[in-house]
Structures are given as structure tokens and as C-alpha cells.
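Record passed on underneath.
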Amino acid sequence: MSTEWGRAEASDLKAAGAEPLPHARNGLVLKGWCVESRKRPILNSLAIREWEEKLGTSHMPEMVFGESSLSLLHISSGIKLHFNALDALRGWKQESLPPVEVPAAAKWKFRSKPSEQVILDYDYTFTTPYCGSEMIEPNYEKKGLHWQDTDERIDLAALSSREPILFYDELRVDGVLMRLRDTRVYCAFGSNGNAEPVVLRESCWREATIQSLSAQGIPSDSAAYGDPNLIVHKLPIIMQKNQRLEISR
């Protein structure tokens, strides 16, 4: 898994009417929203054991940046969308996909000594259906939040404008499978930043084996796809969903 967190230039933020967060926090306030990322060290062994107990598993990624997160808070309503590793792993545990078979796995299975056998009986790619978490911040009016299927779509024309990209994240499995699970959350900025936001979420899962791509004459070397956008439209869609965040009292 590769993760890259970026921050726009100060001049871009000023031009967009945004203000950086104080006290060396990584984020900004823009059009009634507070966007903040936290980048923290890898969890230590004690924290890993605590997470294993919470998740009911002894399998964890080799490195877990458990306290790193991205949050988007609508200041006037208290609606908060956030992305964190624990909830993502909860999704992985619940979905429980079968393991991805790599070429070396066949050799592991036929080792002569049982004590040397390596058994991978879980999804070690840690693929998750997680699309983010939502909540109402404490000290705000209590409301219910849920995602409702909708025919509304994200305004791609609005996204084509040259505005700074603040955060970027990707997951890629090399050598056997190309799997892309893409979640886009969109809120159009209106003139009234205090009004309840209209938030749309689009989720799309695409997946193909390297073998099937090679059969179509598509390069199978993962190094050719440093940018996921180069391969995304060649992968068949296996799930697509459009939702709107509904607010109830």
C-alpha cells in the first residue's frame, strides 16, 4: 500500500478563500468545512494486540498507521465524515475475501515438512469495502445519518476545474491481481456555508487478474501503472453504487 499526503500551496489556498488550520495542524477551513489529516507513527506491539482483540483476528498488516486519519467536518451542522484504519480493517474482517493465490503459494503447499508449510487462509491484501465513517460531533443537535441510494451523480464538470488537490491515496496488488476500490465523496459549495450540506458518495469496484489483462494484450508489468488512471478504465466493473447522505431528526 502506498500513501501520499499532500498540501496545496499557500497562494492556492488563499485564492480559494481557505484558511490553514492553526498550531501546525495539517488541514484547512473552506466554505464551512474543516478538512484535516493526521499522520502518526506505526502502531506499537501493545496497540497491535489491542486491535487484534477488537477485531477478533490474529492477522494484521505488517505496518498499521492506526492513528493516521482524514476527517471532513461541516462546522455549523456537526456532520463529520472521517476515514480511519480501524474501521477499514473492520470492513476487511467482515467481508472476509478468500486469499489471493500467488505463484509461490503452490510451492509452499507441497513442501515435504509440515512444519515448514505456510498456510494463507485469509485475505492478506487486506482489501476492504470501507467507504468512510460518518457521525455527528458531540455538543451538536442529535441527528441520524445514513446513506441512501440515489440517481444523482457527482458533477464531473465541476471537478475538471483547476483547483488544488489536497490529499491522495491508493492501493495496488502487484503481480497477480489488479483491484481498484474507488470512493469519491462530493459536496458542492453553496453561497450559505451554514446550510446543511448535500453530500454525494460514489463507490466503484474494478478488478481483473494479470492473466486476463495479458490475454487482451494489456501490459502485465505493474511498473507500467504507477498512475492508477492509466489502467482503471481497462478493468471491468464488479460493483458500482451512488448514494446521498440523508439527515434525519
